[in-house]
C-alpha cells in the first residue's frame, strides 16, 4: 500500500507538465497574502480604548496606552517587512537567482582550479554565498527594529557597536557550525544511498545533543554573560523547590539580558542528568523572590512533563516526513528544469543542495500548517506547566498570576488579540487565557496527595 502510494506520488511529482517555478512563486504570494491579512486583523485591536474588563484593575492607564502604541508600531512594521521580504523573495524565484548563483559560484570554482566533480565544495560555496548575500537586505530592517522601534518604546539597551559585533559573530558562528553540518549532510546523502533518511536522523539527533553541550560553553558567552545567582533568599527558594522535585540542578545562573533589551524571561537547559536554570536579570529586578520562584515552578512543570523531549520527538517526526517527501524530489529533473538549470545540472549533476533549496520552496505552503500545529502543542504545554505549578503549591497560583501580569506590563504586551492572529502566531496562550485557565483549575485532592507522596519519596 505504502509502496503503491509512493509510486503514485512519484509519478505525479515527475510530471514534466508541472511548472514548479510558477508554483513556488504562486505559493509565496499566497502565504504573503494570508500572513498580511492576519496582521491587518490584529491592527484594530490597538485602537480599543480600554483593556479587557478582567484585566482592567491590573493595567495602569499609562501602561495600557504605551502597550497599545508599541503593539501598533510593531504590527505596522511587521506589515512593511512582509511586503519588503516578499518582493525580494519573488525577485529571487522569478529572476532565477538559484540558477544564477550556481553558475556564478561554478565559475569561481573553475578559476580556483576545482573540477566540475567537486559538487560538495561547490555546494558549500553556493550556500555560503547565497546566505550572506540574501541576508544583507534584511540587515537595515533588523537595525531599525532595534534602534527604531525598540528604542522608541524604551526597550533597547544595545549600542551600534554591540549590534555590529553581534551580526559579525552570528556570521562567524554560521560559518564555523553551519558549513561543516551542511558538508556532513551532503556527504551522508551521497554515501548512505537508500539509507540516507535514518542516517540523517541519527546525525541530527547527535548534533542536537552536542549543541546542548557546546552552546552554553562556547556560543552563549559570545553574546551574554552568565553569572551564578548569588547566595540569598532567591537562591535558597529555587534550590529548595528544585530539590523537592528531584530536578538535577547543576548551576543556577543570572543572564545579563538587560545588556540588549528590557524584556524578561527564565528558562532551563542541559542534559537529562545535569540541568541549568537561567534567570534574566530583568525578571529578578521586576519581581519579588516568591514570584520568581513561582515562575521557576512553571518552568519545572515543563521539565516534569518532559516537554522538551516531547518537542524533540515532534521535531524528529517532522524531519522524517520532510526527508521522506524529499526522496520524491531529489532526482527529479523536472524541478531543476523549471528553475532554469541546464540539462547537465538537471539530469547528470542533480546537486543535493539545489534539490533541497528548491524542494523547500515548493513545500513552503506547508509551513503555516506546521507552525499552527506546533503552536497548538506548545500552548497545551503552557497550560500543563501552569497547572503543575498550581497543584504543587496553592500559593503559586496567585504568585504566578501576579508575575505574569507584571511581565505583560513590563514587556508592554497588548492584552487584546485577534483570535486568528493569536492562533497563528502565539506559541503561548494569552495572559487572559492563562489566568482564566488557572482560575478554573481545581487541583483534585488525589493529585495533590499523589504529589505530596512523590515529593516525600524524592526527598
Ligand atoms: Zn512555559
Automatic annotation (TrEMBL):
Keywords noted in UniProt = Endoplasmic reticulum, Hydrolase, Membrane, Metal-binding, Metalloprotease, Protease, Transmembrane, Transmembrane helix, Zinc
Q: Where is the Peptidase M48 domain?
A: 228-440
Entry's Gene Ontology molecular function annotations: metal ion binding; metalloendopeptidase activity
Names of the cofactor(s): Zn(2+)
Where does the UniProt annotation place the signal sequence?
A: none
Residue ranges spanning the membrane: these are: 124-149, 170-189, 195-218, 311-331, 351-373
In its UniProt record, which GO terms are filed under biological process? CAAX-box protein processing
Principal cellular location given in the protein's record: endoplasmic reticulum
How and how many cofactors are bound, per the record note? Binds 1 zinc ion per subunit.
- Give the Pfam families listed for this entry: Peptidase_M48 (PF01435), Peptidase_M48_N (PF16491)
Question: Which membrane topology describes this protein?
Answer: Multi-pass membrane protein
A GO cellular component annotation here is: endoplasmic reticulum membrane
**Positions that bind Zn(2+):** 298, 302, 382
Q: Which residues form the active site?
A: 299, 386 (proton donor)
EC number(s) from the headed UniProt entry: 3.4.24.84
- Localization per record: Endoplasmic reticulum membrane
Q: What does this protein do?
A: Proteolytically removes the C-terminal three residues of farnesylated proteins.
Record-stated family:
Belongs to the peptidase M48A family.
Provide the protein name.
Answer: CAAX prenyl protease
Amino acid at each position: 500500500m505504502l509502496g503503491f502510494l509512493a509510486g503514485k506520488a512519484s509519478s505525479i511529482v515527475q510530471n514534466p507538465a508541472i511548472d514548479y517555478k510558477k508554483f513556488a512563486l504562486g505559493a509565496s504570494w499566497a502565504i504573503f497574502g494570508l500572513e498580511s491579512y492576519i496582521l491587518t486583523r490584529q491592527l484594530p485591536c490597538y485602537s480599543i480604548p480600554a483593556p479587557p474588563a478582567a484585566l482592567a484593575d491590573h493595567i495602569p492607564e499609562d501602561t495600557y496606552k504605551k502597550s497599545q502604541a508599541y503593539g501598533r508600531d510593531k504590527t505596522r512594521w511587521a506589515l512593511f517587512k512582509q511586503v519588503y521580504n516578499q518582493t525580494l523573495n519573488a525577485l529571487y524565484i522569478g529572476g532565477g537567482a538559484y540558477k544564477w548563483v550556481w553558475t556564478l559560484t561554478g565559475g569561481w570554482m573553475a578559476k580556483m582550479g576545482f573540477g566540475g566533480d567537486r559538487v560538495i565544495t561547490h555546494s558549500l560555496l553556493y550556500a555560503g554565498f547565497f546566505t550572506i548575500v540574501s541576508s544583507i537586505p534584511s540587515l537595515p530592517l533588523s537595525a531599525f527594529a532595534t534602534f527604531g522601534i525598540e528604542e522608541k518604546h524604551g526597550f533597547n539597551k544595545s549600542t551600534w557597536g554591540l549590534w555590529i559585533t553581534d551580526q559579525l559573530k552570528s556570521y562567524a558562528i554560521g560559518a564555523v557550525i553551519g558549513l561543516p553540518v551542511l558538508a556532513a549532510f551532503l556527504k551522508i546523502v551521497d554515501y548512505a544511498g537508500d539509507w540516507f533518511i535514518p542516517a540523517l536522523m541519527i546525525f541530527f539527533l547527535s548534533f542536537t545533543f552536542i549543541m546542548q553541550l557546546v552552546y552554553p560553553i562556547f556560543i552563549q558567552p559570545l553574546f551574554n554573560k552568565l553569572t551564578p545567582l548569588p547566595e540569598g533568599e532567591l537562591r535558597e527558594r529555587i534550590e529548595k523547590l528544585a530539590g523537592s522535585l528531584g530536578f538535577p540542578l547543576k548551576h543556577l545562573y543570572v543572564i545579563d539580558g538587560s545588556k540588549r533589551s528590557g524584556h524578561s524571561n527564565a528558562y532551563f537547559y542541559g542534559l537529562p542528568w545535569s540541568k541549568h536554570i537561567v534567570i534574566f536579570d530583568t525578571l529578578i529586578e521586576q519581581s519579588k523572590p516568591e514570584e520568581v520562584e513561582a515562575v521557576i515552578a512553571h518552568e519545572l512543570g515543563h521539565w516534569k512533563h518532559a516537554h522538551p523531549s516531547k518537542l524533540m520527538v515532534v521535531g524528529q517526526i517532522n524531519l522524517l516526513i520532510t526527508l521522506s517527501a524529499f526522496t520524491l524530489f531529489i532526482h527529479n529533473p523536472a524541478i531543476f528544469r523549471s528553475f532554469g538549470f541546464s540539462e547537465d545540472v538537471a539530469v547528470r549533476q542533480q546537486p543535493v543542495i539545489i534539490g533541497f533549496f528548491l524542494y523547500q520552496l515548493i513545500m513552503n505552503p506547508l509551513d503555516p500548517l506546521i507552525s499552527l500545529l506546533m503552536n497548538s502543542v506548545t500552548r497545551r504545554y503552557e497550560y500543563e506547566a501552569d497547572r503543575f505549578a498550581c497543584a504543587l503549591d496553592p500559593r503559586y497560583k496567585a504568585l504566578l498570576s501576579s508575575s505574569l501580569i507584571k511581565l505583560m506590563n513590563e514587556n508592554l504586551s497588548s492584552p487584546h488579540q485577534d483570535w486568528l492572529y493569536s492562533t497563528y502566531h502565539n506559541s503561548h496562550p494569552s495572559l487572559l487565557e492563562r489566568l482564566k485557565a488557572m482560575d478554573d483549575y481545581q487541583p483534585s485532592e488525589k493529585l495533590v496527595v499523589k504529589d505530596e507522596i512523590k515529593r516525600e519519596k524524592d526527598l
